[in-house]
Amino acid sequence: MPNEVELKLRIARKDAARLRKHPAILAATVDKPVTRKLTSIYYDTPDLQLLDAEISLRVRRMSGGWFQAVKAAGSSLAGLHQRMEWEDIIASGQPDFTRILDPQLVRIFGDEALRAALAPIFRTEVQRTEWQLKFDNGDAVELALDLGHLVAGKKREPITEIELELKSGNAARLFDLALILQQDIPLSLENVSKAQRGYAHYRPQPPTVFKAKLPQLSRQEKASVAFRKIAWECITHLQGNQDVVLHGNDVEGVHQMRVSLRRLRSAFSVFRGLLGRETTDPIIEELRWITDILGAARDLDVFVTQTLPPLQERFEQHAGLVKLGEKAALLQTRAYRDVRAALNSQRYHRLLLSLAAWLENERWKTEGTLDPDVAALADATLANRHKQLRRHGKRLQEMPAEERHQTRIAAKKLRYTAEFFLSLYSGGKSHAFIHRLAQLQDRLGVLNDIAVTEQLLRRLAGSRPDKPVAEALLLFKGWNACNIEHSLAHMDEAWHRFVHHKPFWG
């Protein structure tokens, strides 16, 4: 079963000439580049049965012959596309079902009604230039530059992209090469295939929020293996919400991107014994950069969508609340402009490429460091973080806001760690533990939101607020005091339920 591994990148048409002459390509090219015209026709039924089955059927005209490709479900991560692919030479531009031999595909395409309903639904017309690249360590990569159009009915959209396909060797080579090229040519990761772009004309779907998935670990694995799995899951979570932020209107997208970055940094902390600071610190610094930009937008989202509406409903048309709302909405718009500019920047795409190359090449490993079994590391880390939270959690009612904030961080670290390692433990105790921990975290989160609100109100009101805004600040002061009292009243119950729940590890 062939497995295609390729990295897709967007490039501006005006930069194609610079790519052709790039020293890194010229140095690694083993044969003269080949340029040819490709016409690819994608087939499906009128109700898109192949799309629903996560299969694409493509017939391509190339070099005077016809080639059929069937691609099955795969993954797209940091621009890296991995999927199963079967390609065969066929006699004409019509699909040849006799060339499909995989048992599962035979069952699907053996349906006579489906075969009869198949018809061309869109096509791509590109001029492709291919370079065969060979590197000193034996890695082999095919670089393809595609310039052309996608045609769906009467609609045409441009195609200007690079595909780096791994022919042999380590997939990290693809990211390393992309980073070298990006030093001189603006390149962006492309997580959408040509087939997905074509189907979007027939079944447009708004981007949806992507929640974190729990990594599947084995107790027999080493910690280094577990770290790579957990880190990739965090990156998947991050990228899964990019389109929501860039093209959607659900504020949860920013929240989930921020959570993914916090989870990733928490993973760095859990596995810090394996990580070399020399290569890790630059990654962490860039993660802080994008986290701060997302954080500014998230603080305003919480204020505009959660904190302010209850007061506006209670004190309808209060002039001061209206002014604060208008100012907050303006700042929110600006914050989203900053977020989108960051996500579209070369700095952000370089961060993703660098992070992927760092993981795949295992540059994070420290020379000579012991690599313990993940089960032993999980038991020790969970026990340590549980102890830290219990120590932080004493005197919750009396402690100042900053100490409660530290307790909240300790709770969050324990929760992320528990979720990372959840698959190592059986039974319902682990889920119940995390549920009670989440309840405690929620209570602490309410108090943190109030603290953030007070900082934001000072920014919104300015140094000399007018009378309506001054009145609104007093309303907020009373409202927040009431919420603090209510949260603290229920804090002891949440804490009691948590500390009396037996840990599931060890």
Automatic annotation (TrEMBL):
Pfam families: CHAD (PF05235), CYTH (PF01928). CDD domains: CYTH-like_Pase_CHAD. InterPro entries: CHAD_dom (IPR007899), CHAD_dom_sf (IPR038186), CYTH-like_dom_sf (IPR033469), CYTH_domain (IPR023577), YgiF (IPR039013). Keywords: Exonuclease, Hydrolase, Nuclease. SMART domains: CHAD (SM00880), CYTH (SM01118). Residues 220-500 form the CHAD domain. Residues 2-205 form the CYTH domain. GO terms for molecular function: exonuclease activity; inorganic triphosphate phosphatase activity; metal ion binding. Signal peptide: none annotated. PANTHER family: INORGANIC TRIPHOSPHATASE. This is Single-stranded DNA exonuclease. It comes from Novimethylophilus kurashikiensis.
